[in-house]
Amino acid sequence: MKEYGKISETAVYSAETVIVGTGAAGFNAADLLHKGGAEDILIVTEGIKAGTSRNTGSDKQTYYKLSLSGSDRDSVRELAQDLYNGRCVDGDIALVEASLSSPSFLRLVDLGVPFPTNRYGEYIGYKTDHDPHRRATSAGPYTSRYMTEKLEAEVKKDGIEILDGYQLVRILTEEDRVKGALFIERKTGKTMAILCRNLILATGGPAGIYSLSVYPMSQFGATGVALEAGAMGRNLTEWQYGLSSLRPRWNVSGSYMQVLPRFVSVDKDGKEYDFLSEYVYSRPEMLSRVFLKGYQWPFDVRKLEKGSSIVDVLCYLEGEKGRKVYLDFIHNPDFLPIPWNELSQEAREYLEASGATGDTPIKRLKKLNEPAYSFYLDKGVDLEKEYLEIGLCAQHNNGGLLMNTWWESNIKGLFPVGECAASHGVYRPGGSALNAGQCGSRRAVSWILEKCTGDWKPDGDALTEKIKEIEDLVSSALQGEMDSDSVYEEVRKEMSLSGSAIRNLDAMRKALSTVDRYLSSFSSIKATSEGRIWSLFQLRNALITQKVYLSAMIDYVEKGGESRGSALYSDEKGEVKPRNLDHRFIYSLEKEEKRPQIQEVKYEKGNVVFSYRDARPIPEDDDFFENVWSQYRRNRNIY
Fold it and tell me: What separation in angstroms does the CA of 561 have from each of 119, 233, 551, 556, 578?
């Protein structure tokens, strides 16, 4: 990082390539840039130990890749087709992720991520959701943490400079080209600008817009900052939601459901309700659906009638009543013995084969998966003695910021990588997000090394007004009337109730009205102290993100959009009418044979503009080796 001078009252520096974020995608980009010969690199992060890559996992956190074991037939084109089949996925992007799957995975292996092999050296796999092969693998519940730690170690060996404790608040652009980025130091609230040629955005998904969230408390995202700068969004309506514990934030998938815990809600007076038994399914039928929840963890409208997602809806309804929802591993559901002979064959045979047929859920959990019990114990929660609070939480945004096949956005020089990039569609094979982050960051680096390094001079001449606007917000941060933390809590709760897995048009419009009101009166909102000026900007980022995402959901419905899977859109005239649920849960399901449209979004001067298009097909396989080799020798296949 080099000194540039001052613009207005802000200290200004320069670096040719700035990477924002210290997760697996950000570190991968930095290390590959260095190994490719780039020298002027800077990493900036809110907290090097923060973020999703380092702080989340699951029962067996999955990495999805091309098959590298066994006799299953597989190919790059087959993998691309399965990614493309996720609907609203561009075929050329699917092909890139499939093509780079093996080199990206094997690079992690070489760095020391402990993916398991058999005695012959094959990287064994298993089937995950939406996976026709056995492409999934895992290094355990902390797979993405291991990836991050190994990549961080490489970056530190490289000697790449890292600025810790700085929050991105504005992307500085001129004529749809990146010119730099503006940060505030979280401890002091002071502004700092860095002029750059390339800005790699590795800030994760928009984690801070929901109150019910499995994202770590340390992650907020910066999608709103990018949208404000003119970056387009794609497939913003498409998310993954599922049941998760709230303290700590962790997916309660796999073993936590398969051992048949008791679901209990508690009202403000402390009264308990075994609410699953209030629904129309028989007890054995409901228990079998709870078991399925272990496999079918994400909420899926298609699994509402005949699968496990009725459990998600019933938990949502209890929360709507103002009750807290818990998993009780101490007692059986309804305080009654499990009717083993009446369960579904799948549930009964699985639990009997594993020997997990003890007389309480906690005994079954310890038998089936002792580390799953130990995980919560290590976090200060003893499932043998206390209930575990859960909710229907946001887990992953399948959409995000638009990018091309080199992971460059519509703003030249801005490269969204990792979860903030919109490489997925309506659904995706489990674990493909980890693959996408590695492939996308590798692809962005390839373009930067070939096209965007050397012969560059920083230029901040036209940025004074944009920098001064943020300086003014900082200087008045303590002068408002409304407390930023209270406003943030309010809008996140409303987002979880209206714009999450269950979406009602009137409720979304009401939530959008609330967001618009706070955006239009933002000058009257204040930070609670000098040391929390950063939180005012997190709120601003969240409000812009919520405005664009809610607008996208509303526009989707108004254009005739139907439920696709991850979210249920209420439609009183819908074709599907679930048993014993009120009119809000009537919906129409988008037909599989219908060609779905990709929604693209742009935020322009406070307005949200939409367009729709078909997904691009997978490119034809017409490569002749000699021609490709000739092109590659000229410019490393950058064309």
Answer: 50, 18, 13, 5, 19
CB 176 within 8 A of CB 410: yes
Confidence category of residue 580, pLDDT binned at 50, 70, 90: confident
* Residue 564, CA distances (Å) to 189, 483, 498, 568, 590 in order: 43, 38, 17, 8, 5
**Neighbour tally for 9: CB within 10 Å:** 12
Parallel, antiparallel, or unpaired: how do β-strands 166-173 and 161-164 relate? unpaired
pLDDT at 621: 80
Query: What pLDDT digit, counting tens, does each position of 393-442 carry?
Result: 999 999 999 999 999 999 999 999 999 999 999 999 989 999 999 999 99
Residues 6+ positions from 571 with CB-CB distance below 8 Å: 562, 563, 586, 587, 588
**What confidence tens digit (pLDDT) does each residue in 369-386 have?**
998 999 999 999 999 999
Q: What is the residue whose two structure tokens read 């503006």?
A: 182
SS3 621: coil
At 128 the pLDDT is 87
Q: Taking residues 443-459, what's their average pLDDT?
A: 95
Rounded to 5 degrees, what angle do the CA atoms 278, 281, 283 make?
80
Q: Is the pLDDT of residue 639 over 70?
A: no
Orientation angle between helical segments 432-451 and 24-35, nearest 10 degrees? 30
Percent of the chain with pLDDT over 90: 89
**Long-range CB pairs of 154-161, under 8 A, 24+ apart, other chains included:** 154/27, 154/31, 154/111, 155/27, 155/30, 155/31, 155/34, 155/43, 158/30, 158/31, 158/34, 158/35, 160/30, 160/31, 160/34, 160/41, 160/42, 160/43, 161/1, 161/15, 161/41, 161/42, 161/43
Q: Which of 565, 570, 452 is nearest to 504 (CA)?
A: 570
140 sits in the region (left: phi over 0; alpha: psi -120 to 50; else beta) called left
Of the candidates 40, 120, 151, which has an alpha carbon nearest to the alpha carbon of residue 418?
A: 151
